[in-house]
Automatic annotation (TrEMBL):
Domain of life from the UniProt record: Bacteria
Pfam families: AP_endonuc_2
Organism from which the protein derives: Streptomyces flavalbus
Name this protein carries in UniProt: Sugar phosphate isomerase/epimerase family protein
GO MF annotation, one: isomerase activity
Amino acid sequence: MSPSPHPFRFGYGTNGLADLRLDDALALLAELGYDGVGLTLDHMHLDPLAPDLGTRTRQVAHRLAALGLGVTVETGARYVLDPRRKHGPSLLDPDPDDRARRVDLLLRAVRIAADLGAHAVHCFSGITPPGTDEDTAWKRLTDSLTPVLAAAAAADVPLAIEPEPGHLLATLADFHRLRGALGDPGHLGLTLDIGHCQCLEPLPPADCVRDAGPWLRHVQIEDMRRGVHEHLPFGDGEIDFPPVLAALAATGYQGLTVVELPRHSHAGPHHAALSLPFLHRAAASATADTPPVAPPPGEPSATPEGSPT
């Protein structure tokens, strides 16, 4: 693989390749030229609850090394802990035993990340349960994350929490509230989803990137529209990507920037094949400070129609 002409390391999330065996997904991403993978721990991809986890993790580590892929460990599997509740249980559940199950998953994720040489572990707060007041929800979150952060520090793997629309921790301002409540621990970082910035942050995505720069430990990327939490293929939303990538380059961020299209998994190989050329064009425009290059016929532009250039 030839050296990248830009400072970015692009990956693709396995939650957008759920119909592929993990080994096949990794091989596909390497063949397409991706630099890494956002590995969502799930029943079909390095199941964190199945037997022989250590052995299976070592096998994946060897495969990643052979393919030259970096990795972030993600923990957003919909039903890995509960077959009836999407993303349940969460760190905010009223039942302490349920909260402990989510904490255990994150502790497993930290160990897996350390064994894989991952650059971060991703997590999120969860939705505030009905009947739970805000102060109680924040206390549950901080209490639940305390042992996970201790494990992350011991393993020297950053824990990167993601502001998620509809969750207790939904915005960058909420991330800073959590930092303050926990005493600004060194291993607490941020997963910034560029689409979420477009969806609900008051600032444009490029400004969000600049503001988040000191705490960035993981980046997810896809297109999105204002006020609508729907992950879209590039060119189907409203985001002007070259300024976003220029802002990201200026932060000095060295981790993976991972395409997240979980609801397009039925056509995952197709979207993986289209996404990387799009990002390379946007990155070339960002780093050269020139207008985006017109894409070949049948591929989306790096700047959606109607958005500023």
